Amino acid sequence: MCVRVLRECLCGDDELLSRYTDYFEEAFSGVAFPWVKMFKDAPLSTLIDVPLSHIPDSVYGTTRNWLDMPPVELEDFSAFVLRAFDQILLDLEAQQGGGDSKSQVGMLVALAIVLRCKPEALVPVLPILRESPKYQGHDKLPVTVWMLAQASKSNDLCLGLYSWSHNLLPLVTVSSKKRCYIPQSMDLILQFVEEILSRPRAPAILVDGALREGEPLIPLTSFEILVRLAFPAPDARVESTARVEAIYPLLKDVALSPDMPGGSNAGKQMFTFSLRSARKGIVTGNPVLAEEATSIAVWCVMESVDCFEHWDILYRENLEASVALLKELLGQRMFFRKLSTSPSDTLTVNQTMESFRRKNKKAIAEGGSNRSLYKEADKYCTLISWRISRGDDGGFRMTPINVLVLAAVGASVGVAVGAATFGAATLGAVDVAVGALGATVGAAAVGALIASFH
């Protein structure tokens, strides 16, 4: 009986969505359902299936088939989603004083079915929910999470993560006066993403689908928030920190997509964030943040050589992080292997190292509190250039740049402490062979090696 009435109600061509809504509102007009209390108290695992868990499969199936038929366009569904959400929020506000509401149960059902059948209708609505003040506030968060969860329940995991990172995660930033962190909100927001990540094959689906119509599932601004939540200062850890730590590795894999939109500029922005975060971790005594941010910076420079030129601009103001990054690059064999296949990239990196060394020499000569850091940085710059000159297979390639590098190495060895400077203990991270070379021949032999190539 219910299915037949529904089909008759939806068979017309005019104002179909309005008649669709009217049907459910009338059908549930006499149903007492404490939906306002539900949004306050129920966990997302319960919330996500209400009220559709009470709808007969025959009704749901008939509605789903109708929604797949023309002439209703996607933008009509999006307009319906926003209109329905507005009505639910108005009723929620009216019911905040207590008591149950019967007026919006049918609208909840109608909205849930549309979002599950047409999840893409939510996408145009997301920016409006982010930007309009009337949708802000922690009292509205449970209803917002419920609505986004209906769309993600359609098995569109990418849309679910997209809506979470664009609309929910930004709500927990502590830097905004309008949006501030509170434990209850954080719990609900984490429940949302944890439910998505627990789905079968979620890692493969999300990493492979790291872009949605050219947009990242996790934009840089949201990834910055995620890093701050996952790697707080030791004395700033809260109950939710461990939960963020658990989901961070997978979300990082999604955020650091090789197909990151924005090309070189996006890579530079990510690099800037990672280098500054690494410095913050070092100077504030947060080694876990420093280590993680350095690893992100390594990924950036390995993905795009343009980051080296950008690094040259950031070098002085992020000296502590630059030293850590230079040291880390020395152990990245894949980095040198990739360079060996690209003469233009090799030239860019070598030019950057030479620029660093000029800055180092000037700072060392001027003295100052950072003198030791510049010395350490200069050592790593020299060794990186040396490794590039040798090639990934250990063979030596004589080029004009290599001659200059060898001359610099020879001079550095001779002026410092001679052969002992190249001991295996010092250069073990680079190559035992290089240590043996320094220990055996010192500066004079390096000079002779240069002369032998003339």
Report on this structure:
With 454 residues, the chain is mainly α. Among the domains are: 262-382; 398-454, no CATH class. Helix content is 67%, strand content 1%. It contains 24 helices and two strands. It has helices at 2-9, 16-27, 35-41, 44-47, 57-67, 74-94, 105-117, 126-131, 141-152, 157-168, 183-197, 202-208, 220-230, 241-255, 263-283, 287-303, 306-314, 319-330, 333-339, 343-366, 371-390, 400-415, 424-427, 432-451; strands spanning 211-212, 215-216. It has a two-stranded antiparallel sheet. Helix 9 (141-152) packs antiparallel against helix 10 (157-168), helix 10 runs antiparallel to helix 11 (183-197) and helix 16 (287-303) packs across helix 18 (319-330). The longest helix has 24 residues, at 343-366.
List keywords for this structure.
membrane, disordered N terminus, mainly alpha, TMEM214, two-stranded antiparallel ribbon, 454 residues, 1% strand, elongated, 24 helices, disordered C terminus, 67% helix
